[in-house]
Structure formats: C-alpha cells, structure tokens
Amino acid sequence: MPNLPRSSRLASPVDTTAYGEYRINRRPGDQRPLYRFTGRIEHGAAGRYHIYAGWFCPWSHRVTIARELAGLGDAVSVSYVDNARDGRGWAFRERYGPDPVNGFTLLRQAYEQTEPGFDGHISVPTLWDRSAGRVLSNDYRTIGIDLATRFRDVAEPLVEAYPEPLRAQIEELTGWLAPGVGEDETKARFAALDERLATRRYLVGPTVTEADIRLYVVLVRYGAGLTAYPNLWAYARDLYTVPAFRDTTDLHTYGDSGAAELDWSAPARRPEGSLS
Asked: Is pTM, for the whole model, over 0.90?
C-alpha cells in the first residue's frame, strides 16, 4: 500500500474469490469465549474510548443507542466499518470512510495489535482504548451497560437506561429477546410482547431502559411482519421518534426485510410514559 495519510487509508473491495468467505475458526476443545476481550470502561474517562461499529449489526446498534442516550456524543467517539466482508473480516471503505483513530484498513489489525497472532472472532462492536492502544472489549453485553453507567460525572444522560432498581427485571425480560430464534418462536414472543405493551409505553418502568434498546434493534430488523402486532409496531415507531434511536438506525442496511418500506413516521398512540 502507498504511504498514505492514516486518515485516508481504505481497504480494497470485498473479494471472496481471493480471500474466501469470513469464517469463525475454533479448534475442537477451545474453551475461550467467542467474544474474547472483556475489559470494562473506567469511570469518567472522556475521550479515551472509541467504538468501531456496524450499521447493519444489532449488537453494535445496542451500543450506539446507549451512547446517545447517555449523552456521550463528545465523550466517546464512533466510526463504522463497511457493510460487507470477505475472509479478511470487517474493513474500512469509502461508504463510511477510513478509520479515524488508527488508520487501520481492516478491523483485524486492531485485534492483532492487541494480541499478536490473534486467531479469534473479529466482531463489531469493538471498544478501542486510545490510551492503551488496544482493544478493550468486544463484549457487546457489557459495553452498552458501561456507557450507560460510567460517565455520569462528565455527561448528562437523556435517561438513566440501566437503573439499579430495575436491572434484575431488565435482564430477566430481555434474556429471550436475542435475534436468531426460529420464526414460530419469534411470533410467540412478539405476541406476548404485543399484549404487554397494550397497557404500558415501555417494557420496564415509566421511561426508556436498556430493555427497550435491546428489543428495538430486533424489531427494526424484523421488517414488514411487524405490522401484524399493532401495539409492538406502535411501540417501535414511538421509539423511532427519539433521536438516539432514529439517528442510529439505517433501515436500508437490514437486507430484504421490508423495514425501509414501512411508514415509520405514522403517529404512534401509546400509553403514558416519558423520556425524563
């Protein structure tokens, strides 16, 4: 590669002929976690952390919503990898621009700088520690929680998305919200949630919480079938009116789900509740 300024470096186009398809290679008996980096954010370290995210990815989406709700636009930076990958993993291309922190062309370089010879999963979101020059975490489950709870002395949150008294309820309710279950099971869960949301604006308590973030990223990717559940569909549109949700959502990156063809601006008449 020519000696380009770090801010202008971009990966070559996706080429599965040359590089193959991306695969997670795990040797039999390897007991290491899939998401291998599990460091936690230090309290109030504004400017120290950067999030490598993907518009297409529900796990990244959870983190970017949490960042916005926590008021961290100036405290924690974010950039996006390209939507497509080959055997090299996620990359920085023209669509969303180069890596603004390290000038990497491939996200793999962040992992290899952290652990030379890294042989695990290259995933988004990835939390980069600028001070240490390494990946701190790729555990999406804790990154969002840390963003919601560890910057109170440097930023004013829009809402307290992970309040101590509600944490057990949030985890219990959202333990079965992850995407990837069968269609019949998804329909059964959506029906139960539709009934729950007939009488409440949010899943847990009177304001938006981490539970709503986790459900929302599933709903916006479900697409046209969501309209079969009137309360759930109204709930999703209601959340979409909130900038933290709307501005982190790109409906056109969710494949052929039909999400982009729905009218997300249609009025959503919801039970009482508020963002503050």
From this structure: yes
